[in-house]
């Protein structure tokens, strides 16, 4: 059985690195798919406020979490930090459509 001193923690973990690159790529594709979906279903006579969701996804999730995680994963550095960023972004991307749906379908009291 290897001792704790024998385990090299500086070795890059290729499985984690590949998983993070794939996960962050899917997260970036989600923003593109969201943009295409909103473009196709936007009210042509509306004010364009539908695209606020895309802007929020890019500014609040894509730039601070997904892009740095992708860069770290591609470079193979700080994979723990990249996993934390990608994990939080995955949770937020899961919650984001639910929040947008509740905002769009909320009844406004008169």
Could you characterize the architecture of this molecule?
This protein has helices at 14-41, 52-75, 79-105. With 110 residues, the chain is an all-alpha fold. Helix 1 packs antiparallel against helix 2 (52-75) and helix 2 packs antiparallel against helix 3.
Key words describing this protein structure:
72% helix, elongated, mainly alpha
Task: Describe the secondary structure blueprint for this structure.
Layout: H1 14-41, H2 52-75, H3 79-105
- Count of distinct strands: 0
The assigned structural class equals mainly alpha
Q: State the helicity in percent bands.
A: over 70%
Number of helices: 3
Largest β-sheet summary: none
- Mean pLDDT reading: 83
N-to-C SSE string, H for helix and E for strand: HHH
Compute the separation of the termini in Å: 70 Å
Beta fraction: under 5%
Oligomer: single chain
Whole-angstrom Rg: 19 Å
Name the overall outline: elongated
User: Residue ranges: pLDDT <50 for 5 or more in a row?
Assistant: none
What's the quick description here?
It contains three helices and no strands.
């Amino acid at each position: 059985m290897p001792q704790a001193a024998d385990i090299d923690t500086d070795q890059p973990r290729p499985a984690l690195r590949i998983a993070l690159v794939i996960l962050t790529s899917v997260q970036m594709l989600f923003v593109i798919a969201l943009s295409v979906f909103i473009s196709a279903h936007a009210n042509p006579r509306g004010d364009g406020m539908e695209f606020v969701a895309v802007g929020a996804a890019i500014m609040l999730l894509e730039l601070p979490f997904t892009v740095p995680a992708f860069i770290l994963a591609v470079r193979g550095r700080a994979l723990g930090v990249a996993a934390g960023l990608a994990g939080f972004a995955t949770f937020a991307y899961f919650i984001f459509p639910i929040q947008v749906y509740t905002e769009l379908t909320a009844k406004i009291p008169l």
